[in-house]
C-alpha cells in the first residue's frame, strides 16, 4: 500500500550518536510531504479528468452507435422507397401499355368503321351518279326528240300535234 502524506509526517526515526541533523531531516520530510500531497492531488485531478473523458467517450460512442444505426435505418428506408418507386413505375408503365393498347384497338375499330362508311358512301355515290346520268340521258333524249324539233320549226302559229308515245295533244303558241 502506498504511503500517504500523514505516514511521512508521522514517521519517526531512531536516534543514534552523531545521526542526521534533525532540522534538515524535518525540512526535507516537509518538502517531501508537500510534493507528495501535490502529486496525490494531481493524481486525483487526472483520475477525475480520465473519468470525465471516459464518460464523454462513452457518451460519444453511444451517439456514434445511434448515428450508425440511424444511417443504416435511413439507408434501408431509402432502399425500400427506391424499390417501391420501381414497383410503382412498373405498374404505371404496365397500365400505360394497357391504355395504349386499348386506345390503339379503339382507333383501329374506328378506322375500320370509317373505312366501311367510306366504301358505303362510294357505292351510294356511284348509284346516285348512275341514276343522275340516266336521268340526264333521258332528258337529252327528250330534247332530241321530234316534238322539240317541231316546236322549234314553227314558232309563229299555234298547232296541235298528237304525241304518238303517250297520246297527249299539245298546243303550241
TrEMBL record:
Coiled coil: 29-138
GO CC annotation terms, alphabetical: cytoplasm
Basic and acidic residues biased stretches: 151-160
Keywords: Cell cycle, Cell division, Coiled coil, Cytoplasm
Transmembrane segments: none
Domain of life: Bacteria
Major location (coarse): cytoplasm
Localization per record: Cytoplasm
GO biological process, one term: cell division
PANTHER family: CELL DIVISION PROTEIN DIVIVA (PTHR35794:SF2)
Membership in a protein family: Belongs to the DivIVA family.
Protein name: Septum formation initiator
